[in-house]
Structure formats: C-alpha cells, structure tokens
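Here is one chain, start to finish.
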Amino acid sequence: MPTTTATTRDHRPWRLGPRGRAWFDRLLVAALVVLALGHLVSGQPAALVLAALEPLPLLWRRSRPFAVLLAVAGLSALQAVAVDTPTTGQLAFPVAVYSVARWAPRWQGVAALLVGYAGAVVAAVRWLVGFGTVDLALGNVAPYTVTIGAIVTAAWALGAAAQERENYVAALVARAEQAERTAEREVELAARDERSRIAREMHDVVAHGLSVIVVQADGARYAAARDPDVAVDTLGTIATTGRESLTEMRRLLGLLRDGDTGVAPQPGLGDVRHLVEEARAAGTVVEADLPDPVPDVPDGVALAAYRIVQEALTNVRKHAGPSARVRVRVSVGRGVEVEVRDDGRGAAAPAGDGPGLGLVGMRERAAVHGGTVEAGPAAGGGFAVSARLPL
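Its structure:
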C-alpha cells in the first residue's frame, strides 16, 4: 500500500502552495520594480514613478484579478498622458490580462482582451508620436498594434487554457467522487441484502430447532410418567437439537458482524485463500492448489465457486473428524473447476445438520451458471466434492 501511494503522488503535477504562490507574486512585482530603476539612469523620473507603480496591483492578481486589471489599465492610461515612450511597467499589463483569463469569470476575460486591444492601439499611436513620427497612417500604426495585440492575445490564451484545464480536472474529480459514493452505496446495499438473507436463514434455523425442541419436550413430559427411558432418550434429542441450532445461529451471527469474515460483501476466487487460512487456523490440515495470479472470471461464477468451497470445508469440519486432512484445488481453464477432498470418515460420519441441505445448496448455485456438482465417498476413504462451472 505505501508503494501505491508513493507512485500516485509521483504522478501528480507539481504546484506551489499558498505561501509559495504569495512569494512568487512578491518576487514578480519586485523584479518589475527593479527593472523600473533603469528609467532613473536614463533621467526619466516620471517614467520611473509610473513604471514602479504599475506592477504593485499584481500582488492581488489571484484574489481580485479584474480589479487589478482595471488598476493597471488606469496607470497605463496615465502613463500614456505623462510619458510618450514605452516603460518597463507596461510588462504588468499582459500579466494582468493573463490573471483575469485564469481566475476570473469568462465575461471578464473577454473584457480584459478587448481592453488590451484598445490599449494596443493607444500605445502604438502614443509611441509613434513620442518617436517623432508625424505620419500616423495605417501602415505605420498597424505593426505596433499587431505586435502589442499579439502579446495581449498570447497572455489571454494562456490564462484561458489554464482555467479550462482546471475546470476539466475539477469535473473529473467531482465525477470520481460521485462514482466512489455510488460504489459505496452499492456495496452497502449488497451487504444489507446479504445480511437480510442471513437473517432469513437464521430465522429458519431457529424456528426449525425450536419447533423440534417443543415437540420433543411435550413428548418427554407425557412419557416421563409412563416410561422414563423414553423420556431420557427424548431429552438427549432435545439437547442435541439445541446444540446444533445454537452452533448454526452463532455461525450466522458471526457473518453479520463486521470484519469477522475477512472478505468483501461479495467474495470471489481470490478470497478462497482466506477460507483455507481460516480452516488451518481452526486446526485442520489443508493442502491448497490455487491459481496465482487469480484469473479474471465473471463475478457470479467466482461467488458460486467461493460458496462451494466454503460449504465443503464446513462439511469437513462437521463430519470428517478431528484428524482429517483436506486437499482444496481450484483451476481455471474453459471453466472453473473446484475439488475439495478429505480422508476422514466421510459418508460414515453421523448426520449432523439434516438431509444434506449443504449439498443441495451447492448444486443449486452451480445450476444457476450451467454447472454441475458431484459429491460422495472418495476412493480409498474420505469424502469428495467436485464442481465445474463453465465460463
């Protein structure tokens, strides 16, 4: 799990944190202010003041991008009146346009682009006048306007693309979170359905056991006065039935407790290994031949195979005896083949839980998927359960 987490983090894009972004903006403004000092060397105090003021609003470009654009545009307009040559402070204008396209609503980004185009025309005319150009014909103004407009367009396009990417990523994250919530609800519903099924089974077990106990207890009460030996045998039957019912009820209640099964609400082939480990922990000697890695098979077939192994191992614990050895084999080819074989008492063991309902359940699960189950005494002793589920 730590390896997976590290791999996921390595693929995430690197981004500045809140403090890093604040320091980046401060350094950007500081760099533009330092560039403005060049106007002091050239003897342009007005240009120095305006070039130093224009970048300052960029400190708030992430939180109030449109207001920053208006402030920078206003200072640029003031500069066009006071200074007739380009200044380093005008570098703040494309940064402000980028910020509006990046973090402001779409209509504000379009407005910023239009303001930038208007500023390109004003700057081109003002610079030509400052350079001593008397002829303001289209042929002279157009190159400056197109160049400045291209810079503004590039800044706006970069900001709009970044905003579009962020919105796309946010939509993907929201969709993934929604899918995760849906999956959690489906798992919860599946677990609830499984608990309801187990509750119905527990009701049947308890109702059957109690009905037998009540009938036997009534018979023992009437027989005690006439034939005490019959009453003793009947009380023994009551005790046996009560123990069996109690054991089955405890098993079903154990399945209802979270975390006791060690598997998901709908287990599959990969969870058969858990059944083997559980049987070994209970003292049963189990030899397992399981596919590794686990092949990808339909969920219904995987669940049926898991339940067949589960029921077969339960029967081994009930009937095979304490020293029985078990061999579990699961293979996947044209179908899923399951075999659970033990060397215990097998069919010679006394019946413990009624007329073979576990085997009936196995056959019913296999039949749903067009498969078969064969169960009976194994050659050389013991008991074997073989199932085949076609894919």
